[in-house]
Write a structure and sequence with these properties.
By secondary structure, the protein is of the alpha/beta class. 50% of the residues lie in helices and 12% in strands.
């Protein structure tokens, strides 16, 4: 059996951390290895205690979750390495989410969501994917991405994408898995993985969430367009 996924909890409310820890430690493949009550403490903790996934609150004293995420991932040894960060948020924090993605967060969870979503999200980001599948999260990404106008420098990021890579990115924005994208394009899952890797490398995105938001920012995908699929 492989080692359990190591999780760090960052939230300024002790009861929230206790509840999250209870849920996570109930799973044989997950374990909480540390807790912090603000962003600055989280940066220090992660520097001393290796972990795989961080559940990070957005608004905290001393250092907020966005700045803490940026600092933690900036200290990672390379692109795509280091712990994965899932932001804990509510819909009234929409204005912060785009900044969180730019800082390197791999997904979002609503604090009032079901425990199953939390556990699935931890396993998903640890596997190298991003949490964009739930309809609520797709709507959230669309909303925050629509707050930023398409800029020429954003649009230039997509100049090197092939037509097939643009198709793959559009399907990623709908929340489709590699297997589902393969079915839609009638290609193998291995081929899809190759296309996804090329997309991320060409536009400089850490993962799928960053790629999708970048596509909205650059105008490659328009909020409310058919590319977004059903909500």
């Amino acid at each position: 059996m492989s080692d359990p996924i190591r999780v760090v909890l960052v939230d300024d409310q002790q009861l929230v951390r206790a509840g999250l820890a209870m849920i996570i430690d109930s799973q044989p493949d997950l374990t909480v290895v540390g807790e912090a009550d603000d962003g600055a403490a989280a940066v220090r903790l992660v520097a001393q205690r290796p972990c795989d996934v961080i559940l990070m609150d957005v608004r905290m004293p001393t250092l907020d979750g966005i700045a803490a995420t940026r600092a933690i991932l900036a200290a990672a040894p390379g692109q795509g390495l280091g712990p994965r960060v899932i932001m804990l948020t509510t819909f009234d924090l929409d204005e912060y989410l785009l900044a969180a993605i730019r800082a390197g967060a791999s997904g979002f969870l609503l604090k009032d969501g079901p425990p199953e979503d939390l556990l699935d999200a931890i396993r998903t980001v640890h596997a190298g994917e991003a949490v964009i599948a739930p309809a609520s999260t797709r709507r959230l990404i669309e909303h925050v991405a629509s707050l930023a106008p398409a800029l020429p420098e954003d649009q230039r990021r997509f100049a090197s994408l092939t037509e097939r890579e643009r198709e793959v990115l559009s399907l990623m924005a709908k929340g489709l898995s590699n297997s589902e994208i393969g079915q839609a394009l009638v290609v193998s899952e291995a081929t899809v993985k190759t296309h996804v890797g090329h997309v991320l490398a060409k536009i400089g995105a850490r993962d799928r969430v960053q790629a999708v938001v970048a596509a909205y920012e650059g105008g490659l995908i328009r909020p409310g367009s058919e590319a977004d699929g059903p909500a």
